[in-house]
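Tutorial, part two.
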Amino acid sequence: MRNFKMLLEYEGTRYQGWQRQESTENTIQGKLEALLSKMCGHKVEVQGSGRTDAGVHARGQVANAHMDTDMTAEEILAYMNRYLPQDIGVLSVEEVSDRFHSRLLAKEKIYCYQVINSSLPHIFDRRYAYAYPAPLDIEACRRAASFLVGTHDFAAFTSAKKGKKSTVRTIEEIRIEKEKDIIRFYFRGDGFLFHMVRILTGTLLEVGAGKRKPEEMEALLESGRRELAGALAPAVGLTLLEVRY
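Running the prediction step on this input gives:
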């Protein structure tokens, strides 16, 4: 069995997220596994760097799979791009060490959440950005973000049920940029909890709209209570940009 690393991009609009599900074949992982299993003539399991939610996009998702095949990496790349749906693309395929694991060895991930801050429609951005027409104070958002950078317990910023797994994560950077009516929230960290980026974004948007003060972020972190944090921002605006090893 040879281990292949794949760099993927996809538009998540019509998919039920990354993770395979018994109830539907309409997942990114499910599509990849079905195609590669057919190509190899045996069951292939694809490991992703993380599970993007239903409707979330990726420009730099990393995955790997062990396959019994004589095909070259270049041939696998061509085969996948020929038969995958048009909203899933493979940017590169390379053979790697048997020990490489896309999720367990990931050191850092970068996400971008994109917001259309306008009351006017943005037809060509609507599948990749959340329309939020209320005026936003970007500097207030940035002040709030500064309290969230660092190593903290982010239990208040996840939809996951409480369990034994740690909710401590390190956010290295939150960068907020505005270009005309488009606002982009960039999150870079060692890993993110279920719904974490979308809840962080929803909370920062509430700060920008004047519904919260930036200084409230400290109390939110200390509380560990999801119900005190902001709304879950819609999946449409979120894109996984890069995974670093």
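The radius of gyration is 19 Å. In part three we will examine how such features are distributed along the chain.
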